Amino acid sequence: MPSDLDPGSTIFFTLTIDGESLGAFNGCEGLASTVEVEQYQEGGNNGFVWQLPTRVTFSTIRLTRPLTPDTSKVAAWISSVTTGVTRPTAQISALRADGSEVARWGLIDVLPVSWQGPSLDPANPGVATEVLEIAHHGFTD
């Protein structure tokens, strides 16, 4: 019998940009960072090579969901980029089906880089989905 805090329960994600919710998403990919490493071979030290951190890079994040009324909020955010780029902070929260929070990620300097709307094909009766891809400059506390 699963407990109330079962980590295997259904998870969904919410995206908030500067405190304004853009709705819930079913999928979230790309919450990742990579530390680039420079190798330094110290003279006289044959036991190992120093691994020195240089730069941290962050992958883009892809959020997917079925088409909802919140799609207009995403479209408005993307349209605002044409009038001048501001890079707000964002927050992605992973929630259980009952709305309780599993985890939260704060993002610095967020920018929408791609949006893909649904394929509206009457021959394909699948769920109409959208994909939002965002870039950022790192995680906050």
From TrEMBL:
Q: Report the Pfam families cross-referenced here.
A: Phage_T4_gp19
Protein name as annotated: Phage tail protein
**Taxonomic superkingdom:** Bacteria
Source organism of this protein record: Actinospica acidiphila
Q: Which GO terms describe its molecular function?
A: structural molecule activity
Question: PANTHER family from the xrefs?
Answer: CONSERVED HYPOTHETICAL PHAGE TAIL PROTEIN
